Each structure stands twice: as C-alpha cells, then as structure tokens.
C-alpha cells in the first residue's frame, strides 16, 4: 500500500509548528550578534574588567531565573490552552479567554497582523535547570575581549499528543518527542574602560535540539505504514523550524533608583550548598586620574605591504588583486585605514590619518589587526601584546596579518590540510610615555 502523501505531510508538519510556539515568547525581540570567534584564529586576550571586591551584588534567581521561568511557563501555558481549540477547528484562541490584542494567541489580530489558526499542535511540558554562574572570557578573534559572568540554563521540552491537519483531514502521530535547549545569560560591564561603564545583560537563546533516538517500535511502524518517511522527516522539519527559535537579546540591567547600574569591576559569588544565594558582584571604582589627563599612548600605522604567498601551482593566495581594509584596535579604540587595491609586494604608505591614541593601560597594551576584504568576503586577524615592562612596545613594530588556506599535497596527505602564511605586513610606530625606541617583529 502506498502512503497517503497528504497525511504524511500533515503529520510531519505538526511538531515543527508546535515548537515554533516554543520560541514565540523570545524570538520577537531577538537580533543577530556580530560574528564571533573566527574558526581558524585564536581569541584575543581579555582586557578586563578587574574582579569585583565583593561589595554590591545581584541575586541570580531574582534578576534572571524568575523572569525566565515566567516567560517560558507562559509560552507553554498558551500552547497547551490552545491545543484542543486548534484540534477541533475553533476560529480563535485567547489567553485566559480575554478577547483583546494583548491576549491573542491565534485566530485574531496581534500587533497589526492576523494570526492564523495552526494546522498542527502538541502538548508541551518543560523542565528547567540553572547552573552556577562563572567568570568567562568572550571569544572574539577580531576585536577586544572582556571578562563576563555566564549563567546557563538547560531546558528540556517533551512534545506529545502530536496531530496535524491537511485538507480538512487531521491525523494523530502516536509518538512523543524530546528537545533540549540552552539559554546563556552573559552579565558584563559594558564600556567598563570608560567612566560610564554600565551593567548589561546579554541573553543568547540557542535553537532547541531534537533527540533523534527513536524507539524500535516507532521506526518499525514508520517503516511499515509510512515507508520510513515519518520519523526522519519529522526530525528534519523540526530542525528546520527551530532555526527561528534562537537569537540574542541585549540591554542594560535596569535600576529603579538610577535607571542603569554603573560598574567597572565584575565577579560572581557561588554557593554549591545553597544555589539560591548565587549572585553577580560588581563595583564602580571612580578613576583617581581623569582619563583625559592620563598619559597617552599613540599608535600610528605608517605603511602596509602585501606579502607574496602562493599555492602549489604558483597562483596568488587569495587573489591576484585584493581590496583590503585595515581595522586596528588599540585597547578598545578602533582605527580604520582605507587601502587601495593591492597586488603582491605592493606597499601603501599611510598618511597622518592612520593614528589612534588611548590612555596608558595599567598593565598591557593589546593590539588587534584585521585585514578585511569585503569584495571577496575574507577576514584575517592577529593580535600583539606589549606589557608595561617593555614600555608598551614603544618604537617601531612589525605586525604580520596571516592568511589561512587549504592545500592538497599527495606527498603529505590525501586530505586537504589547513595552511597558514604571511599575508600583509603592517608597520606601526608606538609612542609611549617615558620611552626608549625599540624594534620588534610580531607574527
């Protein structure tokens, strides 16, 4: 017997739609984070903030756990409340039966848009686990990193009572599904290096991951009745749908007294025997010297040279002509140097505009150099660290931006191997207070 195509598609779409409801409470406010760590390049070293002294603190459960539980539980309640109305074909469903836009779930206008009744549904239950907060360094390779407090939640969803409708015909799917989801909350002192650091929360919501460990019974019935289409197709549809149930929300942690919370120190308190007492600690220590009056370090880009680098066949890596742009971070200050199209061995001399100045740091100067080519969609990053004992690298410094590429050489391996080479040589002049000239090469 051939399977009924409409019935298969109806069943296969059920969990995908029902789990979209899972993400509905968070997806609307989400935005995309900028790219993070480059796959091939290491993260730059964190530059702060220093640890807090243990003074002011925020309860993790009060600030994070309670609001998170309220949102997740409301989402589950809305879904389950509208399960039977969707299954019997009711025209609409409102939260708590209050028929207005704020309580609209489907079959009604919400935010100026009509929300249609879903053609699928399921009963959802959820269990939640919070782990103790800990200090973590962000992992960017193309910009400065900082120390943040990371609090992770693990959510497990059980999706059962799955049904789907197509062409007026509704079909029950007799198996449940389990999905796992992680939610990471990063607490940071945004702009801690200035006199206006603000305690900030960034919530990263991952897409739920489907448990694909089917029972033998499910795979057997799926093979007999649906030619093995249902179990695999349901799984793939869920994965595709859940891409919309992830994202990031970021903003200052509010204070009733001042609107925002000032900080330039950060830490955590954890209590394994009493996790309800876990807390994020912070301080705001006013600088003893005004930043504008502090000794300055000046970093000047004097020239950029494209170095020769070839594949085995002699062709240039990456392209014969490239259109790079240099992005240089000195501490947290960013300098962008526009470059012309460049061929191998070409040198570009930078004018007076290639200079950035920052207050002298207390311990080390971190420089991050990116060569970005928007025409060919490439980005290569490197960094250099100069500590106080070297007078922050005072003098002329040569920083080499790498290139990464794949090479297939049967003499070495039958598989492509990742190779690193020298891409661009960046010449800098660092002027630090109370300095004596030196020359160093960084690669």
Structural description of this entry:
The chain is an alpha+beta fold and 443 residues long. 31% of the residues are buried. The longest helix is centred in the N-terminal third of the chain and has 23 residues, at 5-27. The model is unreliable at 1-37, 225-244 and 435-443 (pLDDT under 50). It has 2 domains: 5-283, no CATH class; 291-442, Immunoglobulin-like (Sandwich), CATH 2.60.40. The protein is built from 5 helices and 25 strands. The chain has helices at 5-27, 60-81, 83-88, 216-226, 229-241, and strands spanning 57-59, 93-94, 104-106, 108-110, 113-115, 120-130, 134-137, 147-166, 169-172, 177-190, 198-205, 209-210, 247-252, 265-269, 279-283, 296-306, 325-330, 333-338, 347-349, 355-359, 364-373, 378-387, 395-407, 417-431, 438-442.
């Amino acid at each position: 017997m051939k399977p009924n195509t409409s019935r298969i598609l109806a069943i296969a779409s059920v969990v995908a739609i029902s789990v979209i409801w899972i993400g509905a409470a968070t997806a609307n406010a989400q935005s995309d984070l900028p790219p993070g760590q480059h796959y091939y390049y290491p993260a730059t070293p964190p530059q702060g903030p220093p640890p807090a002294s243990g003074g002011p603190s925020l309860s993790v459960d009060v600030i994070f756990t309670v609001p998170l539980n309220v949102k997740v539980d409301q989402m589950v309640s809305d879904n389950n409340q509208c399960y039977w109305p969707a299954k019997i074909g009711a025209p609409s469903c409102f939260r708590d039966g209050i028929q207005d836009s704020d309580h609209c779930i489907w079959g009604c206008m919400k935010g100026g848009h009509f929300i249609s009744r879903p053609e699928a549904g399921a009963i959802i239950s959820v269990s939640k686990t919070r782990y103790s907060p800990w200090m973590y360094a962000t992992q960017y390779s193309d910009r400065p990193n900082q120390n943040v407090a990371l609090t992770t939640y693990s959510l497990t969803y059980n999706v059962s009572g799955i049904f789907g409708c197509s062409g007026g015909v509704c079909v029950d799917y007799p198996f449940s599904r389990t999905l796992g989801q992680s939610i990471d909350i990063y607490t940071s002192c945004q702009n801690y290096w200035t006199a206006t650091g603000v305690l900030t929360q960034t919530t990263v919501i991952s897409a739920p991951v489907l448990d694909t460990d089917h029972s033998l019974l499910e795979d057997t019935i799926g093979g007999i009745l649906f030619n093995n289409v249902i179990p695999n197709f349901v799984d793939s549809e869920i994965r595709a749908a859940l891409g919309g149930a992830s994202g990031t929300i970021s903003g200052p942690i509010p204070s009733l007294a001042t609107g925002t919370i000032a900080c330039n120190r950060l830490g955590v308190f954890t209590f394994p025997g009493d996790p309800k007492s876990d807390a994020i600690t912070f301080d705001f220590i006013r600088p003893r010297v005004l930043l504008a009056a502090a000794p300055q370090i000046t970093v000047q880009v004097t020239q950029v040279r494209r170095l020769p680098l070839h594949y085995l066949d002699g062709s240039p890596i990456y392209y014969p002509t490239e259109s790079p742009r240099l992005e240089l971070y000195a501490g947290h200050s960013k300098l962008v140097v526009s470059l012309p199209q460049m061929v191998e061995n070409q040198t570009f001399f930078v004018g007076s505009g290639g200079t950035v100045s920052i207050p002298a740091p207390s311990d080390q100067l971190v420089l991050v150099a990116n060569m970005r080519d928007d025409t060919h969609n490439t980005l290569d990053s490197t960094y250099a660290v100069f500590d106080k004992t070297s007078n922050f690298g005072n003098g002329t410094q040569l920083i080499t931006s790498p290139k990464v590429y794949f090479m297939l050489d049967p003499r070495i391996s039958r598989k492509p191997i990742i190779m690193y080479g020298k891409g661009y040589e960046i010449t800098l002049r660092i002027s630090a207070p109370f300095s004596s000239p030196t020359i160093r090469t960084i690669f």
